[in-house]
Amino acid sequence: MQFNLADVFETVAAAVPDRVALTYEDEHITYARLDAEADKVAALLSHAGIGAGDHVSLFLKNSVEHVTSLLGLIKIRAVPINVNYRYTPAELEYIFTNSDSVAVVVELPEHQRTLAGLLAACPLLRTVIVVGEIDDELRSAAAARSIAVVSFAEATNVSPAAAFEPRTGDELYVLYTGGTTGYPKGVMWRHDDFFRKPLSGGNPYGANPRKDLAEIAAAAKEFPELSFLIAAPLMHGAALYSLFTFFTLGARVVLMRDFDSRRVVEAIEQEKLQVILIVGDGMGLPLVDEMERRKGEIDFGSLFSITSGGAIWSVGVRERMLAVKPDLLLRDNFGASESGNDGAFTVDEQGNLRMPPSPSMLLVDEDLADIAPGSDEIGYIARVGNVPLGYYKDEEKSARTFRTRADGTRMSVLGDMGRVEADGTIVFLGRGSQCINTGGEKVFAEEVEAALHAHPSIADALVVPVPDERMGQKVAAVIATYPDAPTLELDEVQQHCRKSLAGYKIPRSIVVVDEVERTPAGKADYRWAAEVAAG
């Protein structure tokens, strides 16, 4: 059968209605109540003229309203558009216009005022839905453009529809992903492909995908009532994948307004958390710092796993987590907005990230031909199977990323580089766009960052190329140290890195900053790092 995400959620809600679905700011919401609240939001959206196929931008931080907006939109076959709330006005204007959004859901007063200044540049916008009090500046700007402003609170006064339109599984889910250069791109997923790949077919901890809704319902009833904290903001792909995955399992999702390592550690004891989702070292480093500080006062007994996705998670950070709680299961998910969940990395003694053989992942050359296992050739990691349709309104970039071989096989080729061993294991080397060419030798930024993060004085680090007259490029590191750490010198950093890296990979320059800038989801901001390193 073809799966629709709303059908899947409603099936689980009917199967485990009294189980807690969402915990947010000490509020515990059951599946039955969350489904009912989403029905009301769906009715509000419909009453505002939003229907099947319409694109709606969610200019929101984490909240219950963010979740019910997502669910309400997919219930009426509309398309949620994730918005990075830290974008500049120019970037926000691009998202709203490029996505063809007809409506925006917004909350914070400062976000409302920013939106007010963009309405004139967004001709397709016809509705703004405001969570909380409506800002006067937004109200005035909307009135001047004949744009309707609707209070989210009105959802309580709108009667839900008796029945929703039939759903097919061909509905779109558009996920905007930020790159290291240029504006974000909207990845177009069919609901059915989204369920089968990012959500692992409803069975992330097993081998066989769910066959139908009845099987999903039965599995949800049998799944233990586990508590998963999603530390990342819901506008991030890894967080969205996890939200829908855990809802499909009938688990309890714990959300926080913002990532705060202190509150996360306290929630382990208060909410009896069993699994925490982070985004690489950007969240892992402050989290393990807090775990070490609070080890003697916080009961970590319920926590059995920390999972990362969407960014590099270094061996040094993992080892520190295991030192706090040796029985932790650490899972490093490999995936992307353009490929979904590709599986979990393992780490060998040298710190290499290794992906077990999989029929959905290949190593190919520039011409998309398979690279023979056991070869020393470095190639591109290609994902096959359920891949997105392409990038929204961008045929050129779609053709470069979502490619088709002569035999008709469609694949997603993102620029992740690797090599394949004799048994089919793929060793991940890094993203090609972050590859530094120094004197003809290729250095992957992620590998050097992992080595730097293992230094006891380094709180965070990003590695970028800077121009070099003799070598073309040289390896540079932008580093933040812990507050009480001694002054860090280049020679010491180089000696530390030589323990695990070849000589040509060693940073030739460092810049020490107060804080390494990252996105709200903890992803690297390489553009900022390159400017700092060059300066």
UniProtKB/TrEMBL annotation:
Task: Note the InterPro entries from the entry.
Answer: AMP-bd_C, AMP-bd_C_sf, AMP-binding_CS, AMP-dep_synth/lig_dom, ANL_N_sf, ATP-dep_AMP-bd_enzyme
Which parts form a coiled-coil structure per UniProt?
Answer: none
Superkingdom, taxonomy of origin: Bacteria
SUPFAM superfamilies for the chain: Acetyl-CoA synthetase-like (SSF56801)
Ranges for domain AMP-dependent synthetase/ligase come to 9-367
Transmembrane feature ranges: 234-255
| UniProt-listed NCBIfam families | PRK07798.1
Q: Tell me if Phosphoprotein is a UniProt keyword of this record.
A: no
Q: Which UniProt keywords apply?
A: Membrane, Transmembrane, Transmembrane helix
Q: What is the protein name for this chain?
A: AMP-binding protein
Q: What broad taxonomic lineage does this protein's source fall under?
A: Bacteria, Bacillati, Actinomycetota, Actinomycetes, Mycobacteriales
Domain named AMP-binding enzyme C-terminal: residues: 447-523
